[in-house]
Structures are given as structure tokens and as C-alpha cells.
Amino acid sequence: MGVIDSQWWSMRWPWMAVWLLTAACFAVVAQYGAARWVAARRRRRLRDGRMFSGLCIYLHETRVEAVADILGIPKADVNVSHETSVSTGFGLFGRVTVGGRAERDTSTQTRREYWEPNTPMKTIRLIMDRLRERDMVVDADLATEQLFLTAALADQLRGTEAGGTPLTAVRGTYVSVSGLFTVRRDGEDVVLHARYGTGEPHPQVKITCEGAWVREEEFRVDSFSAEEEFPATCLGRVRTWNGTTGELTLDPISVFQ
């Protein structure tokens, strides 16, 4: 009987090894896929509360149009249609009121179409929606030092925890930075600074807003002192990182307060 068992095992073990190896590979792939799905759901859930709100204090219209072109968002006017329903006292089926009078109700629908200008302010909302749909924007919270990577950047930086990934590692993608900023004038331009992280020199984000695109009616720069901080969110791209000064420079597209 032992001879038979050993012969059976010698014939079967290679196939069992193949099946075990296949099962192990399948488990690894399933675990990786589940982790990616959970991470994507977490990013979407966390970003739901990070959409722009409040006043737009800076909007670089030329950059908005350029980004809209890249994302395939039309610059032309948008066709808008509205349907209205109107009810009257006569309809197909009658009904008797309390006084004994027969009434019938009916409703008619009217469709009205018109062209509405697609302004840069409307386009920036479409841009944010499109960037989030395509997972093309990194969210950075300077106050909590949280960084929410895109899937592509997370793959590129795999092995580094998101909490330990420096903002300076973000390259080649859009970034939405939220924090407490100070403001000062630099000639015609307006410069925002926000500190984040630790180290010496203390790292900070620098955003230079061209004076022509600052929305002075919503953002009265001269009413802020050099020490006063205010919350803001900037959509832009990383231009440079200066390790000597600890300064990360963003090219802004829009800033919301």
C-alpha cells in the first residue's frame, strides 16, 4: 500500500504544485485589485468634500482656456434647454368638486432652447469635474499635511506611504492645495504664501497671482496685513522646488477663498 501511495504522490505532486502556485498568484492579484478599489473609493470619498466653494478671488482666464482645450471642454456657448409644465382646468378625465361642478385637469409641456455663454467661471467648474473624473489632480491639505495622490502617482511612488510622500514629489500633474495663506503685493502682482511641514528653512508654498486676473471685487488685497492668514484653495501646477529656501512655487489657474 505504501508503494502505491508513493507512486500516486510522485505522479500527482507536480500538478498540485502548479495549482497551488496558480492559487497563490490569483490571491495576490485579487488582494492588489481589492486594495486599489478600496484606495480609489477612499480618494473619491475624501475628495467629495474638497470641491471648490466660496468666492473665486483669482482666475487666470488664459490658462483656463488652455486647460479646457486639453481636456476637450468646448469654449463655445452652451445650448441650454428648459421644459416647463402648465396645468389647466380641463383634461381627459373629469372630476366632481364639492359643489357638484365637474372639472377636468390637463397639463402641457413647453420646451425652450437658448444659447448661454460658457464663461471662464463656468468652465473652471467643468475643468474640476473632468480632472476628478480622470483622476488627474492631487489634493494637498497643508494644515494637516495630508496628500491624496492620483492612482498613477501612487503607483509611481509605491513603497512610500501617502502620509510620508512630500508635496515636492508631485510632478507632471495638477494639484489642488488648501491651507492658510498670507498675501502681499509685489508690484502689479499678488503673492500668496502658506507654510507646511517641518524643517529648516521652514517649507512654504508660493503662489504668484498676476494682477490682471485678481478679482479685486471679491478679494481686497490691501485690507489684509502681512501677518493675517486666510483660508484658500489653489488649483495649479508645480513649477519649481528650491531646496535651499524651502520654497515650492505653483503656477495658479484659480484660487478660491
TrEMBL record:
The keyword Transmembrane helix applies. The chain crosses the membrane at residues 16-39. It comes from Streptomyces shaanxiensis. The keyword Transmembrane applies. This is Uncharacterized protein. Keywords: Membrane, Transmembrane, Transmembrane helix.
